[in-house]
């Protein structure tokens, strides 16, 4: 006999598909993105960039630009009043290249102008004369690893070199498989281009910046240092953010916009176009990874060896952290008692690389999941079985020596993915849109081969290696009106919705107002590393709980009730006996204001052998891809992706589905089409005409299921959902293409020529 | 020596049924730029300036076009409908509501262009198949959703319109 338990959830609370508070504005076109910001008397700003990957700046002559009607000012490195460089980890990137110094990548800023019209700006940029002494670029990371006297920067050519030595180094396997895998440079390609509006204070002593960013407080720190102003004189307000995916973690136009506004005393807006955006933000690191797996006769992994090279491009950005993420999870979501890893993140004259969704683990996963299929073939078992035999469990150890003490349902992820329905063997119709090549009408179904492939991944959540990435939130209740404030960047993921859900659940109200997202409160840390649901969710939850406790204290005092028996039940405060009053009514006349910070447990740096508890927590996911391939033309249609993802707890079902489907599309992009093509340091395809993104016709059917095992370490029981969807889907698709074609395909994206030539 | 400002001119555009005077506009300005920067209609978005992404989709004389590729001054005799012209009396259109209900909105940057494109599609085609929807909207790029919830939104509108 079973007992039915009613678990009715009030719409809008945790666990329901609450509606985004910004949804109405976004569908009606009235939501203000940073590129929509406007001010009276506003000038336009624009940036002059280096056309060379490496050159010495000999001279800069701005006189002809200044003479153009409508040009207000031209600024160069000489006009930077504070620190001349910035950067997230190392401050090695110049605001502008200085005369006598080198430019280190195509697109490095040299000067900026402010003028009355974008066209005037373009003409002014064209009138600035810069003489360069062109130098030979270093574009091969191996040159830097081998060691060269030719230093690209005073800080050197190596951002980080890290070994991992773990377990018994004498272990070998009865079965050994190896390969070298190459990952191309992917772009985040958010739709909402970089844009900012800077408003100078009337007395010129400070500036207010409306900016699309992932991390307001880190931006403020770096901007203030470059402007030579105290941080309180630089106020940042989040402009509407049109996607981010890692590309807004670094400084791009922030300092330039503020400098122009302070120089002219007028509001200044800079808005990049798509080409400039490709030059203006960091990309996913291209990588080369050699791996060797040792396994016993049953396919159980005994040891992994790897040599990992990430090309960081011209400036450091987050390269050291990206590298550590990759190598610390190089074993994948599998048991592995022994490892030896050598790794480098190096400086070259290629475009700077940094954060992108998956942050180093995407590259590692392509390597280890390619290896798993090789291991399966060597043992003679199928790709699912090899992964099940090695599946990590709670209590297993990473190659860094860290114990995975999270919920780790790897086996469930694999089994539940396998249980999801497969697509029909061949579609009922001969609709050309279902066939590789699509409207090109290049194939008929008889020439198409189908493949099925697998990928499984682990992804760390939150920042690592000792970084205290706390988050702050404030909750006020005034006469029953609840207002929540935080500096958490809403980039599209829906934290604004989640914050309201938390407040509704904790406080028993339906109406929750959100204050402006700005720097008038403590930091929330970055919207990255799948961390905001856990970190800022934890902070909002703590602030709301503090308000609830205070509310119940005050109501007990005022109404003469037993405090210990008071609770919030649905929308009411009750003592479980005769007292029941709605929260909104009971709170009339009360004013409560609580601020909370949420911190995760501390983490450690890796030691020289790559050992240390460097991560906070982990999430897991499995992907199964079904592809159709036209082997004659090398064209691929991804038919279906099935996935089971470890999420701890589903806080918003529709939002989770959206993250999964969106992440899969980005992983598909890396698998078969997306790459910034760089030759001799020159970007060959900085446009949406030449950098191919998945369209509606490229996106596969997605069948998804969520594995809900409450994560006790997480304040809401939930794990971050954002990154895992885009990680193992890439090798799943490539493994499917390999199965269909018999090709080795060691490189992503897989190009048509890789299949058909 | 000073160079003169770019050549400019005055003209009138008809947007969402209302006449708008455009003054002192450089002749090279796109329709997207004029809508956003001169007429106070920033709902249409620019994300590629090459007609590849569809964020700037508007309807000109019954055709869905990328407003980044249309010279504003060439549209003087045209009827132009933008995202701001959809919906009535502060209410959302059925397409707009379906995008919310189905979870088709994340960052929202592509949303206005999609909404205009979906209205245009369904005004010409009352019962499109999934593949017809995908093909008709393949000129609109979304980087957040992977298109699944947008497909669901369009399906919902088709069903609701059929039953009403």
Strand order of the largest sheet of chain A: 3-7-1-14-11-12-13
Strand order of the largest sheet of chain B: 2-1-5-3-4
Alpha-carbon distance between the two ends of chain A:
63 Å
Characterize the quaternary organization of these chains.
Answer: heterodimer
Q: Give the termini separation of chain B.
A: 68 Å
Structural class of chain A: alpha+beta
Average pLDDT of chain A, rounded to a whole number, is 97
The gross shape of chain A turns out to be globular
The total of beta strands of chain A comes to 31
Number of domains of chain B: 2
Low-pLDDT segments of chain B:
none
Residues in helices of chain A, as a percent range: 10-25%
Count of discrete alpha- or pi-helical segments spanning 4 or more residues of chain A = 17
CATH architecture of the largest domain in chain A: 2-Layer Sandwich
**Mean of residue pLDDT values of chain B:** 95
Q: Compute the number of helices of chain B.
A: 5
CATH superfamily membership of the largest domain in chain B: Beta-grasp domain
Q: Uncertain spans of chain A, ≥5 residues at pLDDT below 50?
A: 1-6
Largest sheet report of chain B:
5 strands, mixed
Biggest interface, chains and residues, is: A-B, 69 and 64 residues
Q: In a few lines, what is going on in this structure?
A:
The complex is a heterodimer of chains A (757) and B (164). Chain A has 757 residues and is α+β, with helices and mostly antiparallel strands. Chain A is built from 17 helices and 31 strands.
């Amino acid at each position: 006999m079973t007992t039915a338990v009613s678990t009715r959830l009030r719409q809008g609370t945790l666990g329901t598909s609450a509606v985004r508070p910004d949804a109405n504005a976004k569908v009606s076109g009235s939501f203000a993105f940073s590129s929509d910001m406007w001010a009276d008397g506003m000038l336009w700003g624009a940036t002059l960039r280096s056309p060379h990957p490496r050159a010495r700046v000999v001279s800069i002559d701005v006189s002809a630009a200044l003479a153009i009607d409508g040009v207000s000012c031209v600024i160069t490195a000489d006009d930077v009043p504070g620190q001349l460089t910035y950067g997230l980890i190392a401050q090695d990137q110049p605001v502008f290249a200085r005369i006598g110094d080198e430019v280190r990548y195509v697109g490095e800023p040299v000067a900026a102008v402010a003028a009355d019209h974008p066209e005037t700006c373009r003409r002014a940029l064209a009138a600035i004369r810069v003489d360069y002494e062109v130098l030979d670029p270093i574009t091969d990371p191996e040159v830097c690893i081998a060691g060269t006297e030719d230093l690209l920067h005073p800080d050197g050519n190596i951002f980080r070199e890290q070994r991992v030595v773990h377990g018994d180094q004498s272990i070998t396997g009865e079965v050994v498989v190896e390969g070298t895998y190459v990952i191309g440079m992917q772009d985040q390609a958010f739709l909402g281009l970089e844009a900012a509006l800077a408003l100078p204070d009337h007395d010129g002593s400070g500036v207010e910046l409306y900016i699309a960013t992932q991390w307001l407080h880190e931006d403020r720190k770096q901007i203030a240092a470059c402007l030579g102003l105290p941080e309180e004189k630089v106020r940042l307000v989040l402009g509407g953010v049109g996607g981010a995916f890692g590309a807004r973690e670094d400084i791009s136009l922030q300092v330039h916009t503020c400098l122009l506004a302070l120089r002219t005393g007028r509001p200044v807006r800079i808005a990049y176009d798509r080409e400039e955006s490709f030059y203006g933000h960091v990309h996913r690191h291209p990588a080369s990874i050699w791996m060797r797996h040792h396994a016993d006769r049953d396919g159980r992994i005994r040891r992994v060896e790897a040599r990992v090279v990430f090309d960081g491009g011209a400036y450091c950005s987050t390269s050291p952290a990206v590298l550590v993420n990759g190598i610390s999870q190089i074993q994948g979501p599998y048991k592995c008692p022994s490892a030896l890893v050598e790794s480098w993140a190096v400086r070259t004259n290629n475009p700077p690389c940094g954060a992108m969704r998956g942050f180093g683990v995407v590259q590692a996963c392509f390597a280890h999941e390619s290896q798993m299929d090789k291991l399966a073939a060597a043992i003679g078992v199928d790709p699912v079985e090899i992964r099940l035999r090695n599946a990590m469990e709670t209590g297993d150890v990473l190659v860094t020596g860290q114990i995975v003490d999270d919920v780790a349902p790897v086996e469930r992820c694999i089994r539940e993915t396998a249980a999801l329905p497969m697509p029909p063997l061949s579609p009922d119709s001969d609709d050309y849109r279902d066939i590789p090549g699509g409207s090109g009408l290049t194939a008929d179904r008889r020439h198409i081969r189908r493949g099925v492939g697998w990928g499984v991944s682990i992804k760390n959540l939150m920042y690592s290696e000792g970084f205290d990435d706390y988050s702050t939130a404030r909750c006020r209740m005034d006469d029953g009106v609840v207002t929540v404030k935080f500096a958490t960047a809403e980039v599209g993921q829906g934290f604004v919705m989640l914050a309201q859900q938390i407040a509704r659940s904790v406080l028993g109200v339906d109406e929750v107002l959100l204050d402006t997202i700005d720097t008038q409160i403590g930091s929330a840390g970055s919207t990255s590393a799948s961390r905001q649901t856990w970190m800022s969710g934890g902070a909002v939850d703590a602030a709301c709980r503090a308000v609830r406790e205070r509310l119940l204290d005050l109501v007990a005092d005022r109404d003469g009730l037993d405090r210990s028996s008071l609770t919030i039940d649905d929308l009411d405060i009750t003592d479980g006996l005769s007292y029941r009053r709605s929260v909104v009514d009971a709170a009339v006349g009360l004013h409560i204001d609580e601020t909370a910070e949420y911190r995760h447990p501390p983490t450690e740096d890796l030691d020289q052998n790559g050992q240390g508890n460097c991560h906070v927590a982990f999430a897991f996911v499995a992907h199964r891809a079904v592809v159709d391939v036209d082997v004659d033309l090398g064209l691929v249609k991804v038919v279906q992706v099935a996935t089971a993802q470890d999420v701890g707890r589903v806080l918003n079902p529709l939002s989770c589905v959206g993250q999964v489907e969106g992440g899969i599309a980005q992983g598909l992009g890396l698998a078969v089409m997306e790459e910034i093509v760089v030759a001799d340091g020159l970007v060959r395809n900085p446009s949406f005409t030449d950098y191919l993104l998945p369209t509606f016709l490229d996106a596969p059917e997605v069948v998804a299921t969520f594995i809900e095992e409450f994560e006790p370490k997480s304040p809401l029981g939930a794990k971050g959902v954002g990154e895992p969807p885009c990680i193992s889907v890439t090798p799943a698709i490539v493994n499917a293409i390999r199965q269909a074609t018999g090709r080795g395909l060691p490189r992503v994206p897989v190009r048509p020529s890789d299949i058909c030539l | 020596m000073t160079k003169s400002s770019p050549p400019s001119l005055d003209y009138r555009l008809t947007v969402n049924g209302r006449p708008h005077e455009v003054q002192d506009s450089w002749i090279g300005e796109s329709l997207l730029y004029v809508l956003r920067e001169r007429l106070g209609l920033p709902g249409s978005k620019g994300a590629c300036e090459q007609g590849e992404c569809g964020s700037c989709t508007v309807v000109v004389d019954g055709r869905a076009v990328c407003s980044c590729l249309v010279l504003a001054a060439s549209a003087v005799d045209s009827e132009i409908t933008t995202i701001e012209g959809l919906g009535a009396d502060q209410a959302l259109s059925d397409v707009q509501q379906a995008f919310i209900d189905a979870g088709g909105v994340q960052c929202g940057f592509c949303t206005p262009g999609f909404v205009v494109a979906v209205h245009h599609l369904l005004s010409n085609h009352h019962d499109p198949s999934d593949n017809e929807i995908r093909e008709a909207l393949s000129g609109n790029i979304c980087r957040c959703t992977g298109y699944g919830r947008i497909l669901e939104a369009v399906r919902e509108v088709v069903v609701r319109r059929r039953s009403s």
